[in-house]
Amino acid sequence: MRILITNDDGIHAPGLKSIASVAAEFGEVIIVAPDRERSACAHAMTMREPLRVNEVKYLAARVKAFEVNGLPVDCVNVGLTIGWPDGCDLVLSGINNGPNLGFDVTYSGTVAGAMEGTINGIRSIAISMAILNSSETINYDLGADWLRENWDDLTHAELPPLVFLNVNVPNHPAKGTRYVGMGQRVYKDRVEMREDPWGRPYYWQGGVAVLDGAAPETDIHAVKEGYAAVTPVSLDWTDHAVLKRLQKTA
Amino acid sequence: MRILITNDDGIHAPGLKSIASVAAEFGEVIIVAPDRERSACAHAMTMREPLRVNEVKYLAARVKAFEVNGLPVDCVNVGLTIGWPDGCDLVLSGINNGPNLGFDVTYSGTVAGAMEGTINGIRSIAISMAILNSSETINYDLGADWLRENWDDLTHAELPPLVFLNVNVPNHPAKGTRYVGMGQRVYKDRVEMREDPWGRPYYWQGGVAVLDGAAPETDIHAVKEGYAAVTPVSLDWTDHAVLKRLQKTA
Fold first, then answer.
1. With the C-alpha atoms ordered A62, A68, A72, A77, is the resulting torsion angle positive or negative?
2. Deepest of A79, B9, B27, B80, by most Cβ within 10 A of its Cβ?
3. Chain A residue closest to B186 (CA)?
4. CB-closest option in B205, B206, B237 to A234
């Protein structure tokens, strides 16, 4: 099995080492990852600047690794071009240093890596450590162990061409695994104004995720209940029910 | 009607002036746009750097305009904070200087502006000029005219909370308007290798969009046939059919 691995936390992130060590047990691995942290870069693509690629030494002799001055989307496309020109069987993205639940999926560079693999026609999986409090210390071994145990299910699940899997693993031994939908993770106080030493305003964007009110059968709910959450994410974002209604009334 | 306008082509883009001049006929407009072009930035969010906001003079005395050193998502959130702290009725994003058809939707900063408006609970619309050849000169008046004529339909269409409208207007008088789904716009030759004057490789990402094989009832098909395409895009990306199957077999 030919495997391409990327992430959005950068080539030196511990989650990348974890995912690569598990993948190397099951196939031939090439890592192509950003040269630095690129969190919340979503499905952005570098089009206006040339991309540079450097081979780097990595933990395992059997794993080839490259850093790119770009984003996860860039890494997948460059990785397929230089690493797997004859094709690749699996794109893995992660393990992200935090959850990608609900609307996080729309901002996430980790998820975007899997999205780009899918657009390239390759089975793709994004994996994130679902800490629910940013002060928690992440134990990536839990994500690695979960991935190893569920490898067969993930790589054999019957998926249509435009669907990939988004996985959130709890930061404690999971009670089990639940297949669930994307929840609605709402942030409050999205923008905070401050003043610089010269009295001029500047703004921080971020906000606190409000996880409450998570409906059952969602990723947020599953993780709150202590389960790993696996969500099949589609690249057809059409709301077909609304479309039918609009076509009728047009 | 309180209207927030953003784009990904930057505060000086002609498409922004077009959309703002139409919107100002229907309501009170505040523009908050990136200080420079940020194409293909997707739903990325600036989290690691502070955002600065400058008020700028704009074409119409009645329109307030601000530039932000950030991305469309940043502009929407900062814009709602400083421009419409008591709420806003409509977020418009565009008019983009090129199509956002099929998978373009996943890379587009224009679409991301509408996505962020939707996450904030506001009716949102992204509009793009669907030239099918990058050498065409864009006539933004066509987009402005189309928007004016269809304003009532767009702002009154019955949409559930997580759905926004993605509009592609042809670069010639449209034969009409079709409500359609997201097509599959495939690119070929995604990554091109070149050598710098010192013989070191670098890579350009881009590729040529292959529009052929567009299924009927898709945005790509509608635009190729000469129609404006309106697509209801959902922020629930769960593939519910696949989810049900996975839950049964798990």
1. negative
2. A79
3. A119
4. B237
The residue type of B230 is: V
Candidate CATH numbers 3.90.320.10, 1.10.357.10, 3.40.1210.10, 3.40.50.2000; the one for domain A2-182+215-249: 3.40.1210.10
Q: What is the pLDDT of residues B18-67, one digit of tens each?
A: 999 999 999 999 999 999 999 899 999 999 899 999 999 886 667 999 99
What confidence tens digit (pLDDT) does each residue in B127-162 have?
Answer: 999 998 888 999 999 999 999 999 999 999 999 999
Tokens of B33: 């746009």
Q: Which residue is closest to A116 within chain B, CA to CA?
A: B106
Nearest CA in chain A to B236: A182
B129: three-class secondary structure by DSSP: strand
Yes or no, beta carbons of B182 and A250 under 8 Å apart: no
Token readout for A139 is 């134990």
- What does the alpha-carbon distance between residue A237 and residue A15 come to, in Å, rounded to a whole number? 29
For chain A, the domains span 2-182+215-249
Instruction: Say what the pTM is.
Output: 0.95
